[in-house]
Amino acid sequence: MALTVDERLLKGMARDAAVYALTRPAAIVMWIALAAALALSILNLSAAGGSAGLSGLLPVASIALMVYAVVMTIVGARRAVRAATPPGTVVWVRLGESALHIGSGSRSSDIEYRTFQSVRAGTDAVLLKLRGASAITAIPRALVSDADIAQLRARIG
């Protein structure tokens, strides 16, 4: 089965990739550290009797870092998905015995299942995390059935 990528699909795939990036274990540690910094800066400000100065900027800086992390993650996900599969590109996926076969435009790849570390199915994208890297491969969810995802999980896990 093949599918032509459109803007709606690109936005959905980028959203799924951004959610993945913002909720992976390393990101969770970052969110905990930023929340702790925010709480500590608010406590410090309260203990100082509400006097502003530099300590008054710390809560604002913590919130700004959180917003910046979200925005940059979304921008990065959009850029990556658009670069891999520009609008109008025809993509296809086929599960083989030992490899995943992916085609995008005039390019095709055969990627052995052992190359991947995990599978995460979103609303519009199936995300395959590469082993030993922070990179992911995103394929349109419409191209794989629930049975295909179960098969991918069994072959990768």
Characterization of this structure:
The chain has 157 residues and is an alpha+beta fold. The protein contains four helices and seven strands. It has helices at 7-23, 25-47, 57-84, 146-156; strands spanning 2-4, 90-95, 99-104, 107-112, 116-121, 125-130, 136-140. It has a four-stranded antiparallel β-sheet with strand order 1-2-3-4, with no helix packed on it. It has a three-stranded antiparallel β-sheet with strand order 5-6-7, sandwiched between helices. A hairpin with a 2-residue loop joins β3 and β4. It is elongated, with a radius of gyration of 20 Å.
Q: Brief overview, please?
A:
This protein has 157 residues and is α+β, with helices and mostly antiparallel strands.
**How many strand segments?**
7
What form results from the Cα inertia axes? elongated
User: Could you say which structural class the secondary elements and strand pairing correspond to?
Assistant: alpha+beta
- The main sheet orders its strands as 1-2-3-4
List the helices and strands and how they pair.
Elements: E1 2-4, H1 7-23, H2 25-47, H3 57-84, E2 90-95, E3 99-104, E4 107-112, E5 116-121, E6 125-130, E7 136-140, H4 146-156
Antiparallel strand pairs: 1-2, 2-3, 3-4, 5-6, 6-7
Helix pairs in contact: 1-3, 2-3
Labels describing this entry:
157 residues, alpha+beta, 4-stranded antiparallel beta sheet, 3-stranded antiparallel beta sheet, 24% strand
